[in-house]
Amino acid sequence: MSAAIDIGELRARSAGGPAGGRPASATLTLGPDWSGLPAVTELAALLSRVPVSEVRLTAPVDFSTLPGHVISRAVALIRECSSIGARVTWSLALSPERLDVVRQLDHLPAPAGIAVHGRGGGAGRVREWRSSAAFGLFYFRRGPGFLSVLDRRSGPTDRTVLVDRTAIEVFSRGLAGCAWDEVTQDSAHAAAVRELVDRGLVLRVGDHCVTLPIHMRSWPIGTVLLGGTLASAGSKDAPERL
Fold it and tell me: What global pTM score does this model have?
């Protein structure tokens, strides 16, 4: 069993130098004190120096009780773990009125359990989490002056190319999770973020928001070879080379 470390210990280990050839044997635990969640950029930098076997969120990401800034930061961290290839264990809780959130998040790694408030109070396994059966459902790649977003969550591939500077700025700010006021400071930014929300590229959570597509930095060749749900490298669903 791997040893559990917290974000403070991970920072200390990182300050001591890169892990080098040491095996990634520790489990990074985050929570239940949500105020200590690291920024996604910091987490990615730390894990590049000191890899871990798993990132574990010890408390449910509860859309019914947690403030918007915590939910947006937690979703951003889960998305970033998927982007950099770090295994992440988490759980989800929500009210019956927010069940639509599942279809907005199920391109991310599947939670270990989901609790629906008011339905017995228990947590059950997620049975229809689409990323459990398919890889590369919702991701983006960066190009020179544009972003290409591919969405396969609901059937046929939907590709969106963002070239407007304001839209790209809003999309990029949302990667870490940010306050709604930060991306609606003028009419151009407000229009851009509302369009991104309508397209499902950004999720608004109360007074905060978070960008949803995973940054596909590289396409795991093992997934292409072994995943029966994936298209071949030459198909229209294969990632563009950016």
Answer: 0.85
